[in-house]
Design goal:
151 residues, alpha/beta, 2,3-Dihydroxybiphenyl 1,2-Dioxygenase, domain 1, flat
Length: 151
């Protein structure tokens, strides 16, 4: 398939892109996305409780392996430090109400890095650091930008 953009012809093989996408998806286990974030923390139970309190996260903490915690339609792996060094995550999390999730995060012990604000790209967003060093940008959409599809 060929498309024109600004007077230039661009070759685009959508079949190849579809095949690559299918191969990538087939490599991930059921319930996982192609990209699955992981945080390595000093206290798995505490970090999971923070995720539950802030984001209504689901999932158990199995003995002898990392916790697989669901937040919305995504999965976060939470591992104990020891085999791996502490390694915090920076996650952008879309929620129904950023202000509410921000308040819940602070109540669960998070430090405010950025109080809720409206961004120029249409998100209402706050930023917090949990007691385990992970940083969360908590957002919901407030506007769409039909004029500029890149925002």
């Amino acid at each position: 398939m060929r498309r024109r953009r600004a007077g230039t012809v661009i070759a685009c093989d959508e079949d190849l892109r579809d095949r690559q996408s299918m191969q990538t998806r087939a490599a991930a286990p059921d319930g996982y996305h192609t990209l699955t974030p992981r945080m390595v923390v000093s206290d798995v139970a505490g970090a999971v409780q923070f995720l539950r309190s802030t984001f209504d996260a689901t999932g158990d903490i199995p003995e002898g392996r990392p916790a697989e915690i669901g937040i919305g339609d995504s999965l976060v792996i939470v591992s104990p430090a020891g085999e791996r060094e502490l390694f915090p995550a920076l996650l952008y999390v879309y929620v129904a109400d950023a202000d509410d999730s921000y308040r819940r995060a602070v109540a669960a012990g998070a430090e405010t890095l950025e109080a809720p604000l409206d961004t120029p790209y249409g998100d209402r967003r706050a930023m917090v650091r949990d007691p385990y060093g992970n940083v969360f940008q908590i957002a919901h959409r407030v506007a769409t930008h039909a004029a500029d599809p890149h925002l």
